[in-house]
Design brief:
Blueprint (H helix, E strand, L loop, with lengths): L1 H24 L2 E6 L2 E17 L2 E4 L5 E6 L6 E2 L4 E5 L2 H29 L5 H27 L1 E3 L4 E6 L6 E2 L6 E4 L4 E8 L11 E6 L2 E13 L9 E8 L10 E18 L3 E2 L2 E6 L2 E6 L1 E5 L3 E6 L7 E2 L12 E5 L17
Helix pairs in contact: 2-3
Amino acid sequence: MRRSIATILVLGVVAAGGAVAWWKLSPAQVVVAKPVRGPAIEAVYATGTVEPSLEIRIAPRAAARLIELKADEGDDVKRGQLLARLEDSDLRAAVAEAQARVEYANAQFERTQALHRQNLVAQDAVDRTRTDLGSARAALKGAREKVQFMSLTAPADGRIIRRDGEIGELIPVNQVLFYMSGPAPLRITAEVDEEDVPRVSPGLRVLIQTDAFPNRTFEGRVAQVTPRGDPVARSYRVRISLMNDPPLAIGMTTETNIVLEERQNVLLVPTTSVVNGKVWMVDDGRAQPRDVITGVVGPERTEIRSGLDDADAVILQPPENIEAGRRVRSTTGTSQVRAASVAPPATNK
């Protein structure tokens, strides 16, 4: 029994050794392609959100129930236009009461003046009734202003982009009921990592992509870098102005590449072909590594600055654990390097 087990173990070792030898001797199937020439863009990547350059938030100054809506999302409004009314019956009652007090104080003041002209009352009585009249008028003015607070109006020309509230709902004080965009154009606010902010400055070109338009790339310019960052997120807000009036909508998320440098007609290979600073080539049916110096590295393509020529062919996806001198069987494929207008640009941070 022990001899049988030993025999099996020996056979297993021999089989394993044969499999390793077969793996090393058998040619691996690889796909090779030549590099191409194209643009390489060194850029800072950031995510952003489309927003109005001027956003106005309209909220009541006092808590009340919403009783009328005169504008809705998407409406263009003019300065002073009524947007909504809140319940104000109690405030109007307070106005009526204040008005009555003014009328009474005014009558008292006129009567006291008449008595003073007849030398029947002293001057201090006139002064007292004048003060009472002033106080009543001030109270009436305050009551009327509180009634006006219940009518929400547009502070400027613009468009209602969001409404939060329904008729009959109690709107707390300072809770935003309308979000309004001003007449200024849209912009993008992007969050840029604090390590990249020193390289970002106003005027830099920005390439913009969004899931809403997957096959299009829009352009913008850096308009402003906010001077204060977020210490928690370790990022700074960068405002990006849009060019050529793109069909973007408020609230869309975007992927932005802030272009630091753009080089044309550089040597590009698929990013998958570069492994640990090397590319693998096929020489006389065997895989051979070659050291290269890379430049801009992108999700699909990588710039090769030295170590490779246009006529050289590289293995697109070198097999794992590939070794120098390994026999390979190569077929010619496509380098999958596409124009910058089609694929996302090669970038580095």
